[in-house]
């Protein structure tokens, strides 16, 4: 099962000693059992461009998200550590003590340096609370997980596949700008990488989100 690969030595090398992946055996088995039922984050498609350079504009309503902020030396380290924390919260380490259900995508909010050539170290990883928990989110046992009400969001999105590293993300951002051309309707410093599969899958589906100005 794909979740089992999170226990590989390569993944373990990205985690801190506190986040021992061997401790995740139970939650990983539980998430594998529920792997077929993944609730999509709700949104409305506003427009689509279906040519070779396909992308679409979407509107996401306000909602409650469980968020973790990390600032490790490498982007991959930050998202892996945050993802493991969120997995624990989803599986059992919450005030109701049960599996909450997986939603997709998991969002990773990133910021570019002033020069636009590198990512800032701080990454916010966010998990959308399933519909049944939106009104009354279970409280996380981990103090590093915060429940946040995020405002409505309008984005322009484009799919890409593979591992997400600082290099590949910067390439995707650059490519997307070339496709969109000159525009002042989206932010230039803040972007979102949307992940539809767990970080251990090499050819996983991702999206780069350009955030429209309010």
Structural description of this entry:
The protein is α+β, with helices and mostly antiparallel strands. 21% of the residues lie in helices and 33% in strands. It has four helices and eleven strands, in the order H-H-E-E-E-E-H-E-E-E-E-E-H-E-E. The strands form two sheets. The protein has a nine-stranded antiparallel sheet, with helices on one face. A two-stranded parallel ribbon has the order 1-5. The longest helix is centred in the middle third of the chain and has 17 residues, at 75-91. It is globular, with a radius of gyration of 17 Å.
Summarize the structure.
The chain has 214 residues and is an alpha+beta fold. It is 21% helix and 33% strand.
Helix content: 10-25%
Assembly annotation:
single chain
Spatial strand order of the main sheet: 2-3-9-11-10-6-7-4-8
Mean pLDDT equals 85
The largest sheet, given as strand count, sense and whether it forms a barrel, is: 9 strands, antiparallel
Q: Strand percentage, roughly? A: 25-35%
Provide tags for this entry:
214 residues, alpha+beta, 9-stranded antiparallel beta sheet, 4 helices, disordered N terminus
Task: Set down the secondary structure blueprint.
Layout: H1 9-12, H2 25-33, E1 38-40, E2 44-49, E3 55-60, E4 63-70, H3 75-91, E5 102-104, E6 106-111, E7 123-128, E8 146-150, E9 153-161, H4 166-180, E10 186-195, E11 205-212
Parallel strand pairs: 1-5
Antiparallel strand pairs: 2-3, 3-9, 4-7, 4-8, 6-7, 6-10, 9-11, 10-11
């Amino acid at each position: 099962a794909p979740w089992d690969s999170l226990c590989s030595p390569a993944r373990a090398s990205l985690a801190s000693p506190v986040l021992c992946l061997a401790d995740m055996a139970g939650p990983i088995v539980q998430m594998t059992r529920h792997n077929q039922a993944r609730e999509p984050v709700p949104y409305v498609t506003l427009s689509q461009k279906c040519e070779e350079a396909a992308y679409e504009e979407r509107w996401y309503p306000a909602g409650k998200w469980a968020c973790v902020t990390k600032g490790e030396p490498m982007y991959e380290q930050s998202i892996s550590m945050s993802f493991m924390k969120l997995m624990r919260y989803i599986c059992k380490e919450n005030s109701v003590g049960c599996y909450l259900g997986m939603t997709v995508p998991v969002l990773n909010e990133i910021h570019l340096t002033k020069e636009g050539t590198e990512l800032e170290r701080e990454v916010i990883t966010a998990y959308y609370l399933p519909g049944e928990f939106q009104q009354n989110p279970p409280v996380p046992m981990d103090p590093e997980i915060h429940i946040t009400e995020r405002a409505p969001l309008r984005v322009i999105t484009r799919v890409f596949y593979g591992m997400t590293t600082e290099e590949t993300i910067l390439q995707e951002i650059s490519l997307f700008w070339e496709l969109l051309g000159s525009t002042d309707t989206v932010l230039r410093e803040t972007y979102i990488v949307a992940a539809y599969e767990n970080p251990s899958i090499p050819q996983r589906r991702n999206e780069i989100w350009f955030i429209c100005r309010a």
